[in-house]
Write a structure and sequence with these properties.
alpha/beta, Alkaline Phosphatase, subunit A, Arylsulfatase, C-terminal domain, 2 domains, eight-stranded mixed beta sheet, 12 helices, 30% helix
Length: 462
């Protein structure tokens, strides 16, 4: 009798434990998308010298670090528009920096709306910056509400048991925008500022004290951001939801330095990307798969079990049957007062750039010029005849119509091979691939530059 009662009690306990286990497994996971402004892969987990990023490194140790992640644009507004919609910005006429009140093509909605329909609470900021920077007008959206994109400002406002999606922007690495984003202030207040003597500059910058100091301050801002990542992780752990939360860490565009932000060189579109969710992504791994940041939009929708519209240009990373990308594309148009139409296609080894307005040279818009201390140094050294050929590239009055770089042997894109006879076939191949993309996407930024393009464009799935 005792044994029978013991067995019955044991069965009840096991049944209850199993039920709890099943419920835990069935509970939808939360999603946090940490988007850092103006940052390239200058992190210690990417092997960059001088900088220390232990919290971001911790995400990489528990997740997947992507070596070849690329934004679709080298500045925040078009890049964020593409990610918010899951569609290339040149398809939705949102390719210009802060040109508001665009009407979205029929049927295209922000991906947060699809998450809401799947039962997710969508939060923006969560104690940090709540940047969206979209170019489309709320009047064109169903409901016409300012709360259309997100349900609230913090995931703590969700219903009990409701899964959440949170988009968090960390902006200290953004050089411009007042004291809150002042690199000098961040460096001054750092307990362990990066030593200018320890930094390693790209070869197109002169080895000058001002250049070294400016780069060190950029790294100080990154270390500040790393501390914020640590705060977010700590909060998740304290709330007991860390292990059931997918964390995505990326940059919205490349670093705020010359030949970086605003340009289609690696410094402008190559960004760090880390995904942590050990239940699905193998810990402490690296991937050389080509990733476009619009793939993150598709990945989030797929992970959440939300609707995956046919118009999405992204590829879900959680789809194990996916075909990996052979190419990623990027575009630059209006930034500040400078309209400079540039398009590029990148393979794992090569990059082809077409400059539709080469007469613009490498002119930076006014607000960029005012916040690039390296620029004045380089102009002074140029006058003194003290710049080498690589450093002279930044001051050229005209850009070549076409550029081709072998990134295996020339990661800093110094040697343009567009006219090299050994690369003629590759140049033609990549030019055709880029042109096919422009045609298929009915590129709205190139009106008047493409002879086959009508005045009225339409949305065509890539």
């Amino acid at each position: 009798m005792i044994n029978r009662n013991f067995k019955n009690s044991l069965l009840v306990i096991l049944a209850a434990a199993f039920t709890c286990f099943v419920n835990l497994q069935a509970q939808p996971a939360n999603i946090i998308w940490i988007m850092v402004e103006d940052i390239s892969p200058e992190l210690s987990c990417y092997g960059h010298p001088a900088v220390k990023t232990p919290n971001i490194d911790g995400l990489a140790e528990d997740g997947v670090l992507y070596q070849k992640a690329y934004t679709t644009a080298p500045s925040c507004t078009p890049s964020r528009n593409a990610m918010l919609l899951g569609v290339f910005q040149t398809k939705t006429d949102t390719q210009d920096q802060r040109i508001r009140d665009k009407e979205l093509p029929e049927g295209i909605v922000p991906f947060t709306k699809l998450l809401q329909e799947a039962g997710y609470y969508t939060a923006l900021g969560c104690g940090y910056a709540g940047k969206t920077d979209h170019n489309f007008n709320y009047e064109t959206l169903p409901g016409k509400s300012k709360d259309y994109l997100f349900d609230g400002r913090d995931w703590k406002e969700r219903k009990d048991g409701q899964p959440f999606f949170a988009q968090i922007t960390l902006n200290k690495s953004h050089r411009l925008g007042g004291e809150n984003k002042d690199w000098i202030k961040v460096s001054r207040e750092s307990l362990h500022p990066v030593s200018p003597e320890e930094v390693v500059l790209p070869p197109y910058f002169p080895d000058h004290p001002v250049c070294r100091l400016d780069w060190a301050r950029y790294l100080d801002a990154i270390e500040y951001v790393d501390g914020q990542v640590g705060e977010i992780v700590t909060r998740l752990k304290e709330e007991g939801i860390f292990e059931n939360t997918l964390i995505i860490f990326i940059g919205d565009n490349g670093r705020c330095h010359l030949r970086g932000k605003c340009w289609l060189y690696e410094g402008g579109i190559h960004v760090p990307m880390i995904i942590r969710y050990p239940k699905l992504f193998e810990a402490n791994t690296e991937s050389n798969e080509l990733i476009s940041t619009i793939d993150i939009t598709a990945t989030i929708l797929d992970f959440a079990g939300a609707e995956m519209p046919d118009y999405l240009d992204g590829i879900s990373i959680v789809d194990k049957n996916r075909d990996e990308r052979e190419y990623v594309f990027a575009a630059r148009d209006l930034v500040g007062e400078v309209m400079d139409h540039i398009r590029c296609v990148r393979t794992k080894d090569l990059k082809y750039i077409m400059n539709f307005t080469p007469e613009n040279g490498y002119y930076e818009c006014r607000y960029v010029q005012d916040n690039r201390p390296m620029l004045q140094v380089m102009e002074d050294l140029h006058q003194e005849g003290k710049l080498n050929d690589a450093q002279q590239l930044l001051l050229a009055r005209y850009k070549p119509k076409e550029e081709l770089y072998d990134l295996r042997n020339d990661p800093h894109e110094i040697n343009n091979l567009a006219e090299h006879p050994d690369y003629a076939d590759k140049k033609a191949e990549l030019r055709n691939i880029l042109m096919d993309w422009l045609i298929e996407s009915s590129d709205t930024g190139l009106k008047g530059h493409l002879p086959w393009q009508s005045a009225k464009t339409k949305h065509i799935k890539n």
